[in-house]
Design brief:
Elements: H1 4-22, H2 42-48, E1 54-59, H3 73-88, E2 92-93, H4 116-133, E3 137-142, H5 148-161, E4 165-168, H6 169-172, H7 198-207, H8 226-236, H9 240-249, H10 262-265, H11 281-305
Parallel strand pairs: 1-2, 1-3, 3-4
Helix pairs in contact: 3-7, 3-11, 4-5, 7-11, 8-9
């Protein structure tokens, strides 16, 4: 016969177990993401290493993106696109740093900037850690224009100084993009539409819409040095030389004396005259799907040229 004391203990144990199993995270959280290193257990990493030696490392930034986009726009966009690639092909997604090189946004609150020396050293050392565990091939997915040269240097350092093999994924995708696919761009005459503009807004509306305050999106008042303003028609017409010279001066730290920091040139922090609210989730979807399709095709071709273990 069951004693009252034993029955009481059994009820308490069952009630406690039920409460623990029903307990939810104190903060909203999403589902576990496949091949995403921060979500993986050590056995899962070991298992992945039996199928691939490839890693995607997104390179982003923590910087102001106007009045309507989150400070982490670049990091989040790069990370989510890398995660989407990893759902379609076996590759490890390993985010390393949130901030990037963003000195020209420092007059706006929330921006964090690191030197190129710090950035490249951290990424190279992170790659060396993953190489020690058996990963061999690295794809750097840069999601912030200010990191472009630094990303290229990271790739070169890994190739020159380690047993790893690295590529800049953005540069690798050209041959794999379908003509006419990707970001269709807004209708109407061409306008300056760069940092925080309708393109980045479109990506954010597709990838993390809950973080976009579209009601706060307004056209910026843009003021540039006269010689840059004079170049703008050629830039918008697609003159590659004009664009190269334009970007060599435009959007640079106030300490350079060029008078082209984001604060110098924009009333809102958005560098562009087009209304960011013209961005659409459909445009963001098209651009993202084009990038993901091209990345999956590139990875397949790399595996053909150099199978794992060789």
């Amino acid at each position: 016969m069951i004693r009252i004391r034993d029955l009481f203990i059994a009820v308490v144990v069952l009630a406690t177990a039920s409460a623990v199993s029903a307990q939810e995270s104190p903060l909203p959280s999403g589902a576990k993401i496949r091949n995403y290193l921060p979500h993986m257990t050590r056995p899962e990493v070991q298992d992945l290493l039996t199928r691939t030696d490839m890693v995607i490392i997104p390179v982003g930034s923590v910087e102001q993106h106007g009045l309507h986009l989150p400070i982490g726009t670049d990091f989040l966009a790069g990370l989510e696109r890398a995660q989407l690639i990893a759902q379609r092909t076996d590759v490890l997604v390993a985010p390393i740093l949130f901030p990037g090189q963003s000195p020209y946004h420092m007059e706006f609150e929330g921006t964090i900037t690191l030197s190129s020396e710090t950035i490249q050293q951290v990424y190279v050392e992170a790659a060396q850690s993953l190489i020690r565990h058996g990963f061999k091939r690295f794809m750097f997915l840069n999601a912030h224009g200010g990191n472009r040269a630094t990303t290229q240097f990271i790739v070169d350092r890994i190739n020159q100084e380690t047993a790893g093999i690295a590529v800049d994924l953005g540069s690798a995708l050209g041959p794999f993009r379908q003509r006419g696919a990707g970001d269709p761009g807004p209708s109407g005459p061409p306008e300056l539409d760069r940092h925080g503009g309708s393109s980045e807004t479109s990506n954010a509306l597709y990838l993390f819409p809950e973080l976009v305050d579209l009601a706060a999106a307004v056209p910026a008042e843009v003021n540039m040095p006269p010689h840059l303003q004079a170049m703008l028609p050629d830039v918008l017409a697609g003159d590659d030389t004009a664009l190269l010279v334009f970007l060599a001066e435009g959007l640079k730290a106030s300490e350079t004396g060029k008078a082209t920091s984001a604060f110098d040139m924009s009333s809102t922090g958005v560098w562009g005259t087009r209304d960011p609210a013209e961005g659409t989730a459909e445009r963001g979807r098209a651009g993202t799907e084009s990038l993901v399709d091209a990345a999956v095709a590139f990875i397949a071709r790399w595996n053909e040229l150099r199978p794992m273990g060789r």
